[in-house]
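Troubleshooting log. The previous structure file for this entry was overwritten by mistake, so regenerating from the original sequence record. Sequence copied from the archived sheet and checked twice against the printout by T.R.
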Amino acid sequence: MTLGRRRWTVPLAVAFLACSPALVPAQPAYRQLHALVVGVNRYAADEAIPQLRCAEADAQAVGQLLGTKYGFGDVRLLVGKGATREAVQVELARLADPAVVSGDDGVVVFWSGRAATLPEPDDAACAYLIPQDAAVTTGAVAEPAGLEGDCISTEELAEFADATPAKHVLLLIGAGTGGWGVDRASPGPDGVLRPDAEHRLARRGRSVIVAAQPTEGAVEQGEWAHGAFTFRLLGGLLPPNPPADEDQDGTVTVGELAAYLRASIPPIAAQTPWFAQLGGDAGGLALTPAEMSDPLELKQSHLAETVPFDHWAYDAVQILCDAGILTDADFGLVLSGDTEVTRYQAALLAARTARSLGSEPAGEPGQPYADVRADDPQAAGIRYLTALGLLTPQPGERFGGEAGATVADLCKLVSPMAARARGVELAPGADVVQYARDAGLIIGHPRADEAEPDAPVTRYSLAMVLSRLVGLVRH
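Regenerated output below.
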């Protein structure tokens, strides 16, 4: 038995999240787009199955990309201990239900984790994707019967693809496997994978793209923070002009994506992706980036569902999610609240807070920071706060938005808002940290001393400060 490799670099996370269809519209070619995204780093049988570093990060990043950039209104994320065989099968059954998925829908299933490919007597191959709770051993010879009760077979996935009423299904398998019972295709300019997008969209299709051959491993490296397959997948679909869109018509067909991955992965990793049609009428999924929305738009989020209910920051996160201040596009499908934020990220959420409280710029914008570009989406927050007159940079002053935000940086953003809510304006050179303390905006962790000015700001602490600001202004 050979085990396909896979990977990730963040703490073990467990999440099961559905993006509300109201948050992101489906692409015009589909009534609705659905995705099941699975990633496993550590397995229950941890002594038998080599652990991974990046598989769960792969799943989170792909889920976020599809949900926020490609109009997938239904994204289900199963990572870590949540990625059990039963949980995966429940989700596959849901996506095969005509009450959930229609004949005008598209479905993507992404898997990042270990896989096992077993030879059979007739030289065929039997392959299995290994869920988190699989009781699998790594003996020199394993029988397929020993995996059927614990794993997800490629045959099972192919049967799902055939059973779901969706017009198009795309399976993205981030592990080296065989066993699909189909001929593998090598996408080329003259191949069957290159019909025009309109032709492919009109026909039913089921496709699979696999990260590597069954004898190869799917490579992961810390410098990418992803496996090679996911690293190139995310890069190839990066909007607004995805590199995988070879003919630059605004739509990435499954054939274009397969060709892009096959060409771009071998130069960085010793693995060769392959593509196959599992059935249908030569149709295939086509991905079109959703319209780029206003970074300051207020959108309600489900991120609070990824925070433990008894966590000290849960209420603060819930307040920001309900107000549309914290959105699914900010930090991914799992909050990972202990992660530190940049100045740009802090300014963006502070600006959304100001907008949610009714503040809109009036008149001409003030003096901008020297290093803040007018066309940079990540700088939208700091531009908004400057336009409100809450920040008054000196000529030539730089913001340094990519740097990690400190408590002092955050106080510089929120203290002027708190003062204005009280009907006053902070004087130039005012002690913004002391003002924020006096206003009750920064008291640090509820069970700790006041935060020091040079302390880093985490997603949790940012949520605490902004939720207090909301409470101060509203009450």
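The radius of gyration is 24 Å. Archived copy saved in two places this time.
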